[in-house]
Amino acid sequence: MGLTLEEIGQKAKAAEGMLRTLPTSRKNEVLERAAEALEEQQDMLLRENAKDIEAAKESHMAQGLVDRLLLTESRILQMAEGLRQIAGLEDPVGEVLSMHRRPNGLEIGQKRVPLGVIGIIYESRPNVTADAFGLCFKAGNVVILRGGRDAIHSNQAIAKALRGALEECQVSKDAIQLIADTSHETAERFMKLNQYVDVLIPRGGAGLIRTVVEKATVPVIETGTGNCHIYVDESADLDMAVDIIFNAKTQRIGVCNACESLVVHEKVKDALLPRLAGRLKEKQVELRGDEASRRACSDIQPASEEDWGKEYLDYILSIKTVSGVEEAIDHINRYNTGHSEAIITKDYGNSRKFLDGVDAAAVYVNASTRFTDGFEFGFGAEIGISTQKLHARGPMGLKELTSTKYIIYGNGQVRP
Amino acid sequence: MGLTLEEIGQKAKAAEGMLRTLPTSRKNEVLERAAEALEEQQDMLLRENAKDIEAAKESHMAQGLVDRLLLTESRILQMAEGLRQIAGLEDPVGEVLSMHRRPNGLEIGQKRVPLGVIGIIYESRPNVTADAFGLCFKAGNVVILRGGRDAIHSNQAIAKALRGALEECQVSKDAIQLIADTSHETAERFMKLNQYVDVLIPRGGAGLIRTVVEKATVPVIETGTGNCHIYVDESADLDMAVDIIFNAKTQRIGVCNACESLVVHEKVKDALLPRLAGRLKEKQVELRGDEASRRACSDIQPASEEDWGKEYLDYILSIKTVSGVEEAIDHINRYNTGHSEAIITKDYGNSRKFLDGVDAAAVYVNASTRFTDGFEFGFGAEIGISTQKLHARGPMGLKELTSTKYIIYGNGQVRP
What residues contact residue B364 under an 8 Å CB cut-off, 6+ apart? Predict the structure, then answer.
């Protein structure tokens, strides 16, 4: 696929019209066939993936990154299963969100339609190639993928299998295109392809996302980092607080909805912190707190200003003492990344203050921040978690991959 | 107000928290007081505006542009009236769009919240200063305005009156800030102020909008140009067609929802075009068409390829002949700007094909494209018409100036 970006864009636009009105049953047929194709072509996929793995080892890639890159039989089955699950989800396209009649008799409705052409820029997980295609396609969108250089053979192999499935189902194979040229220069030009691309979704680390936000002229949905807080209020059930903090901090540390910072009411710090420290010792969690917290518990190391804004993604927790819910809200709004924040409380008024006052995609009362996830929210799938406020905020499922159009039924109305 | 952008951003963020939870009644009180303040300070406003007008005349600004810049007693009353109307609109903030219970007992709802800090970049109409403040404020947002250099005295005077009203109502006057430095350099830095600004809305001509889209790293809502088409189907009521085209073309020519291009079924061109040409002569509309249309009507001049993509904003109409609804849809999707498109038809199937197949913010059956407007749609107000697909598409009222947050009620849930 040695096409220029211009050619790729034109092919995407040409495919867009067909996808806009493709019936759900045909979309599901493609997804089922694509799942089969991945399974049938497992040997080819493993062979191509081996080329990437070999190159990665030759360039002394870190073991964790090599593992991200690796395809196995079970990972291929997971990709296929993911496509089948997407086939089982409700098609968001065509829903009329509202319709009303105006005094002049016009009936004006708002209908859910595909976004059009979605660009995905991602790093070295080859499964994103199949996942992103499945979600974008089910919502009626054409997808242009730009994966990492390290995974190029794997991505091309997966894209080839998916394009074959589209062709067999007589749907334009350009519903998915992969940019073969993985140079930074081409990536930057891709980010400015406004004529052909309706939205860009970067998937990867903070560096990638920052680059896309800075360079792109195409609208971007930012999926971001999570410096998530749990605030333990004066009235909290401390058993519940310990359980929730333990879960949110340690159940999985490398994810954006893990808890990174504890905010604690000064009146419960003495009762909470020693117990919590004991529990977190099970997982060797390092505690870094302000002076007041350190007076309450000797296991806590001093925190620096830098700690408050940090997404550790590690067995570290920062601890800040506050005089009440207002100060907790101020602290959180100052240092958070707009992802997920929780209050543990029995107080009705404070729960409402926290829900209203905290500025984040997801605000919890008495539950772990780890639930911010498309599957946990019941969307059946997820393309990422938006930390921006435009278009989509929080976990993004199929609906977030759509736009709307106004449809207006008249019988000759003109504007006076 | 000689503040740096950094200081302006910090003040905006400081005001944001108060606005996030400001009760509707207090927002309305501010809007009413602001309307009074504009009326009371009319002399000051006119005096400051006179400085801008004098400078404009000295620099030989075109008469039309001077008129755009001019404040009069009646224009000031209109601004005040606009604020009172906004006070009368329903507050979008706080609406819970959905709430559902998950199997684990978590109740997850999606609640409408302010966007946060909105940046508006506009040209020389001083009334935008009051209008944009009113809409952003009612939706709970802080607004930072960057108006044109030509209107700086007028804009500062209006902002001063509005800030005075905020202060009298004990609401942070930084709910509106105007950037005093109107240099391009500062405007460009403003477009990259991601740390403080959640969204930018450019209001003005195509050049301004293109610049903002190209330079901004803050998310942009693009309000765009309209190359709007009307397709007259084989089965159309030709009287209705002539009335609607006449209205959409001539009722107001300089607006984005005016009709710029007629697409006509080849089987009705002979019956339609001479009648239409006769009617459009009343307004001296110039007709530019393809060969087939010119055979049907001798008043039509030859169109060039360039005509199909043109937003004339003038008494000119292009005419394209097609063999049916599919070709009409293809032509429109190729040349339109995603604004407003209409079909005139009696055919059920063709009306549905057109509604589904045409990619635009508003698609009409048997009505004038001139209705694409926040007031005509019943929103009560409008900050612009979005021609992009992300976040908001079509007329943008108060709801489009909001975001959502997920609120989650638990009773101790942790993720297994």
Answer: A408, A410, B340, B341, B342, B343, B371
Inter-chain touch B115–A389, beta carbons under 8 Å: yes
Bridge-partner residues for B362, per DSSP?
A406, B340
Count of beta carbons in the 10 Å neighbourhood of residue A309 = 14
Cβ(A251)–Cβ(B413) below 8 Å? no
**pLDDT tens readout for residues B194-251:** 999 999 999 988 889 999 989 999 999 988 789 999 999 999 999 999 999 999 999 9
* pLDDT tens digits, one per residue of A149-164: 999 999 999 999 999 9
Q: How far is B58 from chain A (nearest CA, A)?
A: 38
Cβ count near B297 (within 10 Å): 19
Q: Could B219 and A219 be called an inter-chain contact, meaning their C-beta atoms sit closer than 8 Å?
A: yes
What architecture is domain B5-222+396-408? Answer: 3-Layer(aba) Sandwich (3.40)
How does pLDDT run across A111-157, given as a tens digit for each residue?
A: 999 999 999 999 878 999 999 999 999 999 999 999 999 999 999 99
The CATH number assigned to the domain with range B228-371 reads: 3.40.309.10
Find the DSSP H helices in A358-406.
none
Ordered DSSP codes for B193-227: -TTT-SEEEEES-HHHHHHHHHH--S-B--B----
Dist. CA B213–CA B221, nearest whole Å: 9
Q: For chain A, which residues make up each domain, given as ranges?
A: 5-222+396-408, 228-371
Q: Listing from the earlier edge strand, what are the strands of the sheet with A199-203?
A: A176-178, A142-146, A117-122, A199-203
Q: What is the pTM assigned to this prediction? A: 0.92
Q: HSE on the CB side for A262, CA within 13 Å?
A: 34
Residue A167 DSSP symbol = H
A253–B contact, CB cutoff 8 A: no
Mean pLDDT throughout A75-88? 96
Torsion angles phi and psi, residue B21, rounded to 5: -120, 15
Q: Is B189 on the interface with A (CB under 8 A)?
A: no
Q: What angle do CA A230, A232, A237 make, to 5 degrees?
A: 125
